[in-house]
Design a protein that fits this description.
Elements (H helix, E strand, L loop, with lengths): L2 H5 L3 H9 L5 H16 L5 H29 L20 H26 L1 H16 L13 H8 L2 H12 L4 H24 L1 H7 L4 H5 L1 H26 L12 H13 L3 H27 L1
Length: 300
């Protein structure tokens, strides 16, 4: 990127790009759903909700900052990449600036986590520390987990039952089967977001040695995995109702499959970066739709 192009961006625009706002639903919705489920159980604390939401967003942004830095250093982000601009690779910030930003954001999440651990105890402390650790180890360190094909399982767990269950635990002091199942539904959609990202970046990831599941098993596998995640999330509210015998209105969340159909079509037919970028944004929106419908149904 030329000097002239660099200067057209304001500082706040650069850091907003680095935070990847279109995907932040993956951090917001699990906290909202966990909070709604706790609220329905007459367990709610406003300051704890705001603190949990802030910590979740900071950890996700910190993960994105670390990913921006380490993927550039490892060569996964380069000029051949089809995805949205990465600010370190585009020379909008230096690696040192991104490192400082990553540490700052994750340190803020840790400070908020101290308050949440004080309120809810050592399980929340462990969840917070592991979340911050994996935020860095996902693409950093000598054995980056995302480069070993473990990104899908990490996202499924940490953006799913850990996020929803951890949020619920902060309010209620325990978790239950329905909370964990709801968490897995959201974790599946969050994983679908990652799958589209990896499908789009398959070629550049392969050349840089980033062995995602899309690289290891091919685009056909990635598309099938995406479909399983989207459909699995649709089925879980139904399973929750039959297992719990109540909260039948939560099945409303299964209706998210209708706006999902055109997004699925893009994932299966898209061959260029623009279409898959739209699919990634669309999948993130599906998480918001699912979360809204599930939360509404849970309260009815």
């Amino acid at each position: 990127m030329s000097e002239k192009e660099i200067h057209k961006y304001k500082t706040w625009q650069i850091w907003l790009l680095a935070a990847r706002p279109k995907t932040l639903w993956a951090g917001i919705i699990p906290v909202v759903v966990g909070t709604v489920m706790a609220f329905e159980a007459r367990k709610f604390h406003l300051i704890s909700f705001l603190a949990t939401l802030a910590a979740a967003l900071l950890i996700q942004v910190g993960t994105n900052f670390a990913n921006d830095l380490f993927d550039f250093q490892k060569g996964a982000d380069n000029e051949a990449r089809k995805g949205p601009m990465r600010v370190t690779q585009a020379l909008l910030v230096t690696p040192h600036q991104m490192k400082v930003a990553t540490i700052t954001v994750l340190a803020l999440a840790f400070l908020i986590g101290i308050y949440l651990a004080w309120r809810a105890g050592w399980p929340i402390l462990i969840i917070g520390l592991l979340s911050i650790l994996f935020a860095v180890l996902y693409t950093g360190g000598p054995f980056p987990l995302g480069y070993m094909g473990l990104g899908d399982i990490l996202v499924l767990i940490f953006f799913g039952p850990v996020a929803v269950g951890g949020t619920y635990y902060i309010f209620a002091g325990h978790i239950n089967r329905a909370v964990l199942l709801a968490g897995f539904a959201l974790g599946m959609i969050a994983t679908a977001i990652l799958i589209v990202n990896n499908l789009r970046d398959e070629e550049t990831d392969r050349r840089s040695g980033k062995n995602t599941l899309a690289v290891r098993f091919g685009s056909g596998f990635a598309k099938a995995e995406y479909l399983v995640m989207i459909c699995g999330a649709m089925l879980l509210p139904i399973i929750i109702y039959f297992v719990e015998g109540r909260h039948g209105w939560a099945i409303l969340a299964a209706l998210y499959i209708f706006p999902a159909i055109p997004v699925i079509r893009k994932v299966f037919t898209g061959v260029d970066g623009h279409v898959l970028n739209d699919a990634l944004t669309g999948t993130a929106r599906l998480m918001a739709v699912f979360g809204f419908l599930f939360s509404l149904g849970w309260l009815l």
